[in-house]
Amino acid sequence: MNKSLSRTVHHGFVLLLLMASGQFAVSDVFPGADVFPGAPDAPDGYSSELTLKAAFAFGQVKLIELPKSIPADITEYKDIEYANVDGRSLQLNLYVPKGITKPTPCLVFIHGGGWSKGNKDDYLFYNLAFAKKGYITASLGYRLSGVAKFPAAVHDVKCGVRWLRAHAEKYHIDPEKLVAIGGSAGGHLAMMVGYSDDPQLEGELGYADQSSRVRAVVNFYGVADSTTQKAKDAHQVQGFIGGTYDEKPKMYHLNSPMEHLTADDPPTLTFHGSIDELVPVSQATHLHEKLDELGIENQLDVLVGWPHTMDLQVDVNRRCQFIIGEFLKKYAPLPE
Fold first, then answer.
1. Do residues 313 and 65 touch, judged by C-beta distance below 8 A?
2. Mode of pairing for the β-strands spanning 173-183 and 104-110
3. Are 66 and 125 in contact (CB under 8 A)?
4. Which residues on neighbouring strands pair with residue 95, listed in sequence order?
5. What is the mean pLDDT of residues 142-157?
6. Residue 200 needs a FRET pair 20 to 30 A away by CA distance; which of 30, 119, 154, 303 works?
7. Is 104 within 8 Å of 173 (Cβ atoms)?
8. The domain at 3-331 falls in which architecture?
9. Which residues, including other chains, have CB under 8 Å from residue 264's CB and lie 6 or more apart?
10. What ranges do the domains of the chain cover?
């Protein structure tokens, strides 16, 4: 056997050993997390992102399949302009189940990408999955950090919510049942929509006669506190705010959803992986401790042994969709 082949076989064997020995049982429950009766079990997780990457390389991690077309029973309204800033069109996509006649909850999805990349089409999978269940779904685009710094993105998504409320009758949206849902940077923005009412975060992009309040928040692995040392050191956070903490401390605090929390804020559901190296799970546990202190209804699902964007895995996604569905039944139920 030549040295190159021998080395490949050896490395493959080592990776298999890592995978075999590096998993957590689904029965493990992360301290502070809730238990969700009836929810599909999450698949066994991994001891680190390294072992997960090894499993992925060997085809042992099955990912969701992205939609190739829009189902016939869903109407897509694509690239609707909800605001225009200095000639830059801010757009949303809207997905409405055909045949609805009653005011229906609208799930407002906000994409991630470190505030510097991504677009509103990234959430098509979720848009269609929940539209099939009977919900109206929207996906918001917003100005990325390479175009405009914080609080521009917050201004944008809040305006998007106001636009949806202003056009509720046209699209059969129940204006009292708007739910903000986002992942990573989008999770942060969903929380900012849900918790902040500071006038300087509303912006002046239009529909000022409408409220940007939402009925509930679903947060996938978002930054809840921009003032932790890891957040302050993160280039994504610095790029979003436009400076370091030492340069702009007030903006870091203003950018922290937790610092806006008050007892009248909406119920919150969070999903977070215990081995998330980008946004530590402590962001989620500290958030939910604060929610508990304020008496805000909340649920936290920590996926033991799973990383950032863990909901791309088929069985993790199935669990998340089930839990979201139960959460929505309580806080934004479909019309009877």
1. no
2. parallel
3. yes
4. 76, 137
5. 98
6. 119
7. yes
8. 3-Layer(aba) Sandwich (3.40)
9. none
10. 3-331
